[in-house]
Amino acid sequence: MIRCLAACAAAVALLSSCSFVSAVDSVGDPTDLYTVSPKSTFDADLPSVYWQLAVEAPVAAANLNTGRIAIAMTPTSTDYYAKVAWTDRAPLMVQTRIVDSFENTRKIVAVSRESIALRANYVLQPDLRNFEAMYFYGQPPIVKVRIIAKLVRMPDRQIIGVASFERCVRARADKVPKVVEAFDQALGSVIKQLVSWTLRTPPAQPPSESAPYDIARYRNPANAIIDSANCPRGNDASMVPYTDE
């Protein structure tokens, strides 16, 4: 009986220790970790704003909400590169790069992750719809990144802007480091457009009761932004540029 209890206790301890395994660790001891870079160059006419922004962690489907680098062999399947991973779960890595990019503009009073107790005037809610290397257009693969974003005015939580940004880049070779370069370029282009749109959408001054918004203007579906470039149309992928083109 004592041996049985000891064995059960050991099993419970083992299970408890497993609950703290990170998303990256769960890949199976990856030998190489990769990350992406923030944007540091923006258009010269980017406006300065005097409000604070909180950036939520992007929502993502389960197949993208992982530290593993996603690939698609067919339009309806998801797989992952073996023995490699991102340095964090993809949505958290993207959130960090979005925040870094806003800071690099030097055009905003303050920006932070939504988890930090910042009294934000606006909240950016990204939705990471695509973040994978597609092999069904031939090799080397095409990396597709798509983010749909909502800009929410606080504290009344009015959505004042909706936009979709999508970019595709073909890797120079079917090797993980080259594919990661394509991820970096595609995501960087998406983030650049996302940052620019966010800074241009609201007025430069923080919202106040003395300066109410014309909500009807922002609720017009015709004002939604759909920004897609260099992605395949049907079976035609001839317009997709290679990395650094």
A few lines on this structure:
This protein is α/β, with parallel strands linked by helices. It has one domain (30-35, 46-207, 216-229): Rossmann fold, CATH 3.40.50.10610. Helices cover 25% and strands 26% of the residues.
What's the layout of helices and strands?
Blueprint: H1 2-18, E1 32-34, E2 52-55, E3 59-60, E4 70-72, E5 79-80, E6 84-86, H2 90-105, E7 110-113, E8 122-134, E9 142-153, E10 158-170, H3 176-200, H4 215-218, E11 225-229
Helix pairs in contact: 2-3
Can you offer a commentary on this structure?
- The chain has a single domain (30-35, 46-207, 216-229), classed as Rossmann fold (3-Layer(aba) Sandwich), CATH 3.40.50.
- It has helices at residues 2-18, 90-105, 176-200, 215-218, and strands spanning 32-34, 52-55, 59-60, 70-72, 79-80, 84-86, 110-113, 122-134, 142-153, 158-170, 225-229.
- It is of the alpha/beta class and 245 residues long.
- A hairpin with a 6-residue loop joins strand 4 and strand 5.
- Mean pLDDT is 86; it is low at 1-27.
- The strands form 2 sheets. Strands 2, 3, 4, 5, 7, 8, 9, 10 and 11 form a 9-stranded mixed β-sheet that branches. It has a two-stranded parallel sheet with strand order 1-6.
Descriptive key words:
245 residues, Rossmann fold, 9-stranded mixed β-sheet, two-stranded parallel ribbon, globular, disordered N terminus
Percent range for β-strand residues: 25-35%
CATH architecture: 3-Layer(aba) Sandwich
Class from helix and strand fractions: alpha/beta
- Residue-averaged pLDDT: 86
Tally of individual helices: 4
The major sheet is characterized as: 9 strands, mixed
Radius of gyration: 21 Å
Dominant shape? globular
What is the helical fraction, as a range of percent?
Answer: 25-40%
Tell how many strands the DSSP assignment holds.
11
- Domains (count): 1
From the 3D structure, determine the CATH topology: Rossmann fold
What's the order of the H and E elements? HEEEEEEHEEEEHHE
Low-confidence stretches: 1-27
CATH superfamily: ABC-type transport auxiliary lipoprotein component
Distance between the termini: 70 Å
CATH class: Alpha Beta
